[in-house]
Amino acid sequence: MAAQFVRYTPDIEDDDPHFDESLQTVIAKTEKYITESVEAGGTGRALRDAHAKGYGLVRGQVEILDGLPAEYAQGIYATPGTHDALIRFSNGSPHAGADARLGAATGLALKMFDIPGPTLLEDEPDTGTFDYANINGPIFFCNTVEHYLFIQELFLDAPAYFSQGRPGAHRFFTEFVTGKGTLDQDNWAWDEFLAFLRLSKTAPANVLLSSYWTMGAVRHGDYIAKVRITPDPPSAAAVVRRDIDPTSAAEVFRPALEAELQERPYAFDIQVQLCTDLERMPVEDTTVEWPEKLSPPVTVAKLRLPQQDISGPENLEKMDSLSFTPWRVTAEHAPLGNIMRARKEVYRHSSIARHKLNQQSRTEPRSADEVLGPAR
């Protein structure tokens, strides 16, 4: 069985001689946006440069399952047991405001506690926490930090483009494909643009009913994987507020999430899809969906959300003070690929800048109770 899965080796990632130079430019632009967002963002606070608007901070528990096949029982999933957790549901946009203006891209950021072993963040190796920062799509629209240079600018300026109607949209699309005029025609960003169009057509959904993927590939111990957090079928069937219409009110996602969790518990499956073919399941091309017929996702853990009350401004304040990054993981789960590698320092600098501007302590909590208080 093990022979069908591609084993991890460092050489599966491409070397990029311009990576560090481009990364420093992205970090500088990110810090500039965060600084300016205090006044421009409309909230009076520094915003995240992606997933700026949170819908709620939720208490949870992760149960790592016993009896997993050896290929899946890797890294933290090799030891069955339970871990307290926090979950941040969010919109994917770098902007805040009414839900209808932000699109249907959403995220699920998960923080597990009491995970042994050092993280891959050199400035905080011993936090005992382990993060996922997942999105509600199996693909992503940017493959390299060089392309992120122009894609980041386009997304930060998106409201200005689309406020101009069709001409503005056409200019946005043209500048996306051509890299704002920086790409020669043979290298236009068609694959990334088509991935963006696919994701932009995602229908609005209750955040409890979406599946959330790691944006790219990650190491899974001896193997290579993508990780999906997907609704547990019986829990999904019990959701009452299934239809979400962002045009019906300024806030629609958070009230629906609040109401569901006040009425009943919920559960997600944490699933691992192992790579069997680097050509058809690439590490460096995030625009390619990994075919499930080549390797179906296998449930390795349950994420359980107890019935709880997340209403009230204090929930949003506590959520805002937290930091999530795909690099707060152990070495056995390292993110892979150019754009995933870029997220390490971009997320770290973004978090440092935001916490400093908002005069918040940037310290990893040691438990869910430390953030939300004892469970009732």
Structure description:
This protein has 376 residues and is of the alpha+beta class. It is 30% helix and 18% strand. Strands 1, 2, 3, 4, 5, 6, 7, 8 and 9 form a nine-stranded antiparallel sheet that branches. The radius of gyration is 20 Å and the shape is globular. Helix 1 packs parallel to helix 2 (145-156) and helix 1 (19-40) runs parallel beside helix 9.
Please outline what is shown here.
Helix content is 30%, strand content 18%. The protein is built from ten helices and nine strands. The protein starts with 18 loop residues before the first helix and ends with a helix.
Question: What keywords describe this structure?
Answer:
Catalase_sf; 30% helix; Catalase family protein; single chain; 376 residues; alpha+beta; 9-stranded antiparallel β-sheet
State the order of secondary-structure elements, H for helix, E for strand.
Answer: HEEEEHHHHEEEHHEEHHH
The pLDDT mean sits at 96
Q: Report the uncertain regions.
A: none
Question: What sort of overall outline do the alpha carbons produce when their principal axes are compared?
Answer: globular
The end-to-end span amounts to 45 Å
| Strand tally | 9
Protein name: Catalase family protein
Organism: Streptomyces camelliae
Region (Disordered): 352-376
InterPro entries: Catalase_sf (IPR020835)
